[in-house]
Automatic annotation (TrEMBL):
Keywords noted in UniProt: DNA-binding, Transcription, Transcription regulation
A single GO molecular function term of this UniProt record: transcription cis-regulatory region binding
PANTHER family reported in the protein's UniProt record: HTH-TYPE TRANSCRIPTIONAL REGULATOR BETI, HTH-TYPE TRANSCRIPTIONAL REGULATOR RUTR
Pfam families: TetR_N
HTH tetR-type domain location: 11-71
Name of the protein in question: AcrR family transcriptional regulator
UniProt source species: Mycolicibacterium fluoranthenivorans
Entries under SUPFAM superfamilies matching the protein: Homeodomain-like, Tetracyclin repressor-like, C-terminal domain
Amino acid sequence: MFDLADDGFATRRQTALFDDLLALFLAEGFSHLTLDDIAARLRCSKSTLYTLAGSKDELVRRVTIHFFKRATNAIEAILEQTRSERIAAYLIAVGEELAVASDVFMADLNAFAPAREVYEANTRAAAQRVRELIEEGVGNGAYRQVHASFAADLVATIMVRIQQREVRTATGLSDAEAYAELATLLTYGLRA
């Protein structure tokens, strides 16, 4: 996953509002909510929401960025503490971070282009991170000699299919479950 350099939050109150928005969206999705609904649920004014973003569309996009930034930071913290089976640890952590999202949120994310674009960019960055981990594992002898670019491309393909909800449609697996399965397949397939 990727790290968006700056959420652009100016105050603790704004950060807290983004956290509250994220919790609301993760639990219930966002497509059905109006700015009036959101303001009422967060017990703030619409003008307060407009300090966060100029429109509902931009607010959803920024909350999506906030979600993936938090996820990236949590995943990288786990990876820093992991010395073996790093690809599995990474992909399982990705799955765990996605597991907090309701099906409604994931469907809304996929249906709303600005949020989907954030997820797509995050998926590309995650695939690049997996490539780095494959190269690292091959380099230190943990993984057999494989063509890292090919393996990373293969992983990127399935990650995109997960993100686009194709894996869910084909298998019934949630995004989190699909990442756990991918971690298992990759780990055993790459071992030296």
